């Protein structure tokens, strides 16, 4: 009660943007109460409006629709957009200006992405699109037990976010939000012991984490014989593949259910698990999801395929049939909970390494993707740990990249992995897949620490 009637109102006063997001929350929650046929028609209407806007005001799509002979007004079903070619990450990187609206009345804000496939991009968003996207995420989190204003802890964060969290102003704002942020990128045993003490005092209702980081933390608690009395309602994992064995380990330690969430920085929330844990419900108010055969681009069901995502509310920079670089299994079989489908049965393509350093520190692999946020001209990257003291950053860049970044990147990485480490930055024309066939962006050639256990 105190959270809802005291903390949340204060938060809305100090951070008006939060209040605007919560004003959109009922609209997002209504999606989960729609009948399947109602949800489908609503998505058709949203998609048609997006396509009409894109044709009128986005140069890239105006030309694409003309070349494809595609008319947004003729859209009768969401499947009709299969007549359009997918949007590649490279096109977003190199045709960014043409993908943005030419409307002067729609101010745009940049939102950088590290990219799970190792290809960073910058997405521009309208204020309304950003608010509805956050409302959609909140509506999904409510399924896991979240209530606005409740105690919320996050094991997450980019370096810029975690460093900002140390400022006095951000600490005050986080207190107002009833929120605590823990750095998932730097987790040695001393740091995890500190996290356990802080979480025991804070007693969060919800704990949101990178899947690999939460599993690492759970294994540490088990090794130390520690039984957490948090979170009080549920755990949300995201950003990486959550395997069945990871779920079993985590739930055994925390005694609360894990709700898996799938999304990306480019698209926002894509899908969220419900209390039946029978798959992830696509958040159809926010996105349209297709899973297709990677070669033929024909839709597939109940077997792995490539994920294409269309964002339905970002009129500032629409992403239509965007290739995330992920693989997943999509099913039309309804969930027993009755919420509208479709269901993503399994996400196969989101994994990161956890790097173990000579000092004993453990660094989450996505730390290195965040170093590249917002650096113009970086098309692809791969970070390789060869030994405890030898590291390589492989880059594929275009003309906008400034080679002066090489030295800065090497120095920032050395500050993290150790001053005695050798860090080289190499430029390649293209990055080949690994022998496994995966386009993994973080590669550690060291064996996992047996005491803490592998991260995934």
Percent strand: 15-25%
Overall pLDDT metric: 86
The main pleated sheet reads as: 11 strands, mixed
Question: Can you list the strand order of the major beta sheet?
Answer: 4-3-5-6-7-8-9-13-12-11-10
CATH level-four homologous superfamily name of the domain at 354-444: ANL, C-terminal domain
What integer value in Å does the Rg equal? 22 Å
How many strand elements?
19
Structure annotation, total helices: 15
Structural class: alpha/beta
What's the CATH C level of the domain at 354-444? Alpha Beta
The CATH topology of the domain at 354-444 comes to GMP Synthetase, Chain A, domain 3
Q: Which residues sit in consecutive blocks of at least 5 with pLDDT less than 50?
A: 447-456
CATH architecture of the domain at 354-444: 2-Layer Sandwich
First-last Cα distance: 38 Å
Helix content: 25-40%
| Shape verdict | globular
What does this protein structure show overall?
- This protein starts with a helix and ends in a 12-residue tail after the last strand.
- The longest helix is centred in the N-terminal third of the chain and has 22 residues, at 36-57.
- The chain has helices at residues 2-14, 16-23, 25-33, 36-57, 59-68, 89-94, 96-99, 127-143, 159-164, 168-177, 189-202, 211-224, 244-254, 366-370, 404-417; strands at 109-113, 121-125, 152-156, 179-183, 206-210, 234-238, 258-264, 268-273, 280-282, 287-292, 305-311, 322-331, 343-347, 354-356, 362-364, 378-385, 390-397, 422-427, 442-444.
- The strands form four sheets. The chain has an eleven-stranded mixed beta sheet with strand order 4-3-5-6-7-8-9-13-12-11-10, sandwiched between helices. It has a four-stranded mixed beta sheet with strand order 18-17-16-19. A two-stranded antiparallel ribbon has the order 1-2.
- The model is unreliable at 447-456 (pLDDT under 50).
- The protein has 456 residues and is an alpha/beta fold.
- Helix 12 crosses helix 13.
- The chain has a domain at 354-444: GMP Synthetase, Chain A, domain 3 (2-Layer Sandwich), CATH 3.30.300.30.
- The chain contains 15 helices and 19 strands.
């Amino acid at each position: 009660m105190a959270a809802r009637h005291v903390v949340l109102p204060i938060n809305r006063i100090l951070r008006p943007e939060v209040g605007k997001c919560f004003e959109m929350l009922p609209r997002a929650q209504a999606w989960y109460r729609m009948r399947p046929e109602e949800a489908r028609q609503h998505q058709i209407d949203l998609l048609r409006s997006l396509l009409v806007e894109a044709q009128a005001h986005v140069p890239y799509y105006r030309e694409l629709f003309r070349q494809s002979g595609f008319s947004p007004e003729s859209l009768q079903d969401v499947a009709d957009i299969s007549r359009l070619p997918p949007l590649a990450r490279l096109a977003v990187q190199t045709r960014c200006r043409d993908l943005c609206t030419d409307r002067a009345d729609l101010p745009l804000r940049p939102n950088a992405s590290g990219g799970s496939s190792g290809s960073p991009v910058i997405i521009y968003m309208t204020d309304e699109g950003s608010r509805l996207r956050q409302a959609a995420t909140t509506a999904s989190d409510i399924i896991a037990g979240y209530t606005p204003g409740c105690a919320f802890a996050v094991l997450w964060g980019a370096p810029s976010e975690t460093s900002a969290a140390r400022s006095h102003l951000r600490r005050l704002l986080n207190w107002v939000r009833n929120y605590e942020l823990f750095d998932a990128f730097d987790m040695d045993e001393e740091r995890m012991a500190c996290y356990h003490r802080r979480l025991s005092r804070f007693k969060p209702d919800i704990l949101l984490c990178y899947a690999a980081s939460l599993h690492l933390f759970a294994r540490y608690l088990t090794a130390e014989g520690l039984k957490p009395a948090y979170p009080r309602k549920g755990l949300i994992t995201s950003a990486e593949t959550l395997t069945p064995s990871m779920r079993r380990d985590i739930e055994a330690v925390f005694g609360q259910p894990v709700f898996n969430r799938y999304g990306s920085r480019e698209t926002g929330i894509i899908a969220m698990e419900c209390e039946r844990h029978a798959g992830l419900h696509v958040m159809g108010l926010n996105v349209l999801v297709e899973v297709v055969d990677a070669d033929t681009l024909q839709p597939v069901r109940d077997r792995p395929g490539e994920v294409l995502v269309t964002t339905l509310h970002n009129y500032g920079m629409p992403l239509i049939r965007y290739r995330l670089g992920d693989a997943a299994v999509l099913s039309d079989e309804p969930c027993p909970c009755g919420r509208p489908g479709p269901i993503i049965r399994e996400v196969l393509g989101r994994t990161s390494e956890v790097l173990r350093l000579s000092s004993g520190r453990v660094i989450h692999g996505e730390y290195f993707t965040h170093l590249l946020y917002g650096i113009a001209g970086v098309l692809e990257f791969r970070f390789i740990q060869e030994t405890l003291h030898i590291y390589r950053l492989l880059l594929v860049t275009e003309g906008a990249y400034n080679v002066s970044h090489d030295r800065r990147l090497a120095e920032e990485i050395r500050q993290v992995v150790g001053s005695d480490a050798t860090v080289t930055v190499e430029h390649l024309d293209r990055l080949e897949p690994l022998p496994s066939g995966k386009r993994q962006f973080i590669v550690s050639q060291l064996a996992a620490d047996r005491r803490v256990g592998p991260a995934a």
